[in-house]
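Attaching the record inline, Q. Sequence:
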Amino acid sequence: MNIEDVIKRNIQATQTVKNPNNATTYSNVYLRIQPYSSSYSQPPSLSDVSSEVQRHLQFLIYFFDPVHKLAHTTVTQAVPIKWLSLWDEYDWVEDLIAETLRVGVEVIGQEYVVARMGWASKEEHPKENPTSVDPGEKEDRTESS
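Structure, as predicted:
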């Protein structure tokens, strides 16, 4: 099932709700987390170290807000896939994977907030008369005039 099918089945959930008693707006968003494996090997070196192929677990995270038509995608850091066989023996494996997902969701959530608040568009339109916060800069201007 793809994200568009989920949205169509939940069409009422995509409506934005504003609470008149406070400034809170509720929007339904969709988050898809897709695990996948990737492989790579170290570049050949002059040493005798063999360059075996290393496989890693990563997560593709897709965030979609249908009302505001915002979509964000990110990929988490790689975790050695061989560590999954240690999951039942060591709690740190679960902790590491949970932390990898937490950071990925946190990053994509912050991208969403930046887009909703319009902060990214401010970089495209710099201020015409920037103000200085460096007190020494004002002194430099008066001395040179």
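DSSP finds four helices and six strands in the chain. The chain has one domain: 3-40+53-123.

More tomorrow.
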